[in-house]
Amino acid sequence: MDTESQHKPQDTLQDRLTDSEAGAANLPPDLSRGLAYLKREVRKLTGDPGVYRMLNGVGEALYVGKARNLARRVTSYTQPNRLSNRLMRMVSETEKLEVIVTKSEIEALLLESNLIKKLKPRYNILLRDDKSLPQILITADHPFGQLTKHRGRKTRKGDYFGPFASAGAVNRTVADLARAFMLRTCSDSIFSARTRPCLQYQIKRCSGPCVGLVSEGDYAAQLDQARRFLSGGSAEIQRDYAVRMHSAADALEFETAAIWRNRIRALSGIQASQDINVPNLRDADIIAVARSGERSCIQTFFVRGGSNYGNRSYFLSHNADSSAADVLTAFLGQFYDDKDPPAEILLSDRAAEQDLLAEALTMRAGRKVRISRPQRGARRKLAAMAIHNAEEALARNLADTGSQRRLLGELGELFGLEAPPERIEVYDNSHIQGQHAVGGMIVAGPDGFNKAAYRKFNIRDEGPDAVTSGDDFAMMRQVIRRRFERALKEDPDRAGGNWPDLLLIDGGKGQLSSVLEIMDDLGVSDIAVVAISKGPDRNAGREQFHMRGRESFTLSPQASAMHFLQRLRDEAHRWAIGTHRAKRQKTELTSPLDGVPGIGPKRKKALLAHFGSARAVSSAGLDDLESVDGISKAVARQIYDWFYSGHS
User: How far apart are CA 566 and CA 543, in angstroms?
Assistant: First the structure.
């Protein structure tokens, strides 16, 4: 996010620096070239609002910004005396400028946020940990609605409640809601296949709608109570349950009274960790920022229906001169790019272009969204609480990062690197006798594991490094070739920050030789490669390390570097095993219906919804198959003949 420059364009002596003069002035050597390019491009720009993208020589986005006036904004980058060192480096790398003209500055702001999330430009403040937050969904596309956890886009008809800070919080709330309101949590296909009540009914967490133990009207009333509770009507519902409990007890119906008591306890359990006691605060996010150098923590509390749905920390890296206002603005734009904003957003600091942000979020949500920085009262106390949590989380993160950097420094010394590695890639393979073979790559650096950079490689049985059996060496050769052929093609100058400083390979001397063979063949000989093999009897703590030109060696089992390397190897092993299992399961659990001619996704769904499983379909009679919606007599005969001719 950028604040519009109000300065008129002007030439300075530094604008006309040659490359040698720029170097003497301690400026980036290509600055004059970048300045000259931008000055030529400015002449083509209009004064309309829009979004601009600065790209490097290989087409990677360096920076995305929005402007009220494109020509004026880009002109500000041609004045080096008004640019920070970071922006001068960015200009020196810029070889292409792309612009998108929009109808308004609000549209430009929304487009900017979307492009930043998509392109992840190196010089923007980036929100890297932006997984979708879990919600609770009460479905409305079935006569007996389902209570379930939901992530991602709201594609299913129903009522959504949240977001919650963690999946664990949602799971606990769903379990308590099922117990309090006797709602089903099973899928529609399982529901339609039931012939008798399941365990959830036996333990009083479901009213048994699948087998007709509750009417559609009574179940709808239970759903409505759950919606009211999640929308802030908890006190009224608990009073109603208390009246029912006492009435049952007075009538000496103690078993019924115990059921109402258990429901009240379930509701109280939900509220125990959610009540924040702020009058007139129903739907809000409380967002606070804590900064230290080039690192910030954003702490977000989610309040819905007057209840606290938990808090979550987000960490952002940025230039040291970025203000709290800049950090908040960048966070808000990217965070709400794919999330519904609440009615209120309470901030610890005023954001840059706060009013424009509020207008943009209002337009996106289709209702009023208010952004404010509370100055007094209960709302200010909430903001102060969020600030305290942000400061504590940032302190822990910086301590972890400091420890991580110390460990990286130890690895640099241990393996003879010129500097501590900024990016470590660890490789491992997984298969069972050559079947479902996959290669896994994990990435670690100063901030710990970078899970967004993890990669999986499905081992191919063709090409220059084809694998036709369980040959671990051939698998590793294929993985390394594919990884670095792509890197050489997409970023030969290593300007994108995606080249490793250190490769760790799970294996011994044979694996090391396989990797070095490919690296030498590709002409990549300046990256340190270390193979890690299990020691005698495969005991952890006795691992051996193998490098080119050095005798194999080991470390003390108590050495911090040993523990760190074990953690890296174990994470690579976990990733490879998990990827292999997912591939094997996908292959082995292929539905028998997938092979039936003429059965597409729609008919397959109808058959499974009717019979509950592929096994039940395979044993169904002809008349039963014909009774399924969308299955004609001819198709029913085709299915019947397929299974009874020995294909099942």
Answer: 9
How far apart are alpha carbons 546 and 533 in whole angstroms? Answer: 8
Asked if residue 197 lies in contact with residue 188, where contact means CB atoms within 8 angstroms, the answer is: no
Four-point Cα dihedral 516, 521, 524, 529, nearest 10: -10
Cα angle, residue 307 at apex, residues 304 and 313 outer, rounded to 5°: 75
Distance between CA atoms of 604 and 600, rounded to whole angstroms? 6
- 578 is written with which tokens? 């998990």
* Dihedral (CA of 584, 587, 588, 591) sign: positive
Cβ burial, residue 193 (10 Å; 0-12/13-18/19+)? middle
304 phi and psi angles, rounded to 5 deg? -135, 135
Please tell me the predicted confidence (pLDDT) of residue 463.
67
Across 383-389, average pLDDT: 91
Q: Does residue 19 carry a pLDDT above 60? A: no
Q: Is residue 540 scored above 90 in pLDDT?
A: no
Residue 537's CB is within 10 A of a number of other CB atoms, namely 6
Three-state DSSP class for residue 630: coil
- Could you tell me if 546 and 509 are in contact, meaning their C-beta atoms sit under 8 angstroms apart? yes
pLDDT in tens, 291-344: 988 889 999 999 888 788 888 999 998 888 888 999 999 999 999 988 889 999
* Tokens 């270390």 belong to residue: 530
In whole angstroms, give the CA distance from residue 140 to residue 395.
45
> Per the structure block, which two tokens stand in for 264?
């009240």
Tokens of 180: 């309090």
> Is 16 a residue whose pLDDT tops 50?
no
Bridge partners, 313 (sequence order)? 299
Q: Indicate whether 13 pLDDT > 60.
A: no
CB 475 within 8 A of CB 430: no
Q: What is the 3-state secondary structure (H, E, C) of 274-326?
A: CECCCCCCCCEEEEEEEEECCEEEEEEEEEECCEEEEEEEEEEECCCCCCHHH
**Residue 455 pairs with which residues in a beta bridge?**
441
Helix (H/G/I), strand (E/B), else coil: 464 = coil
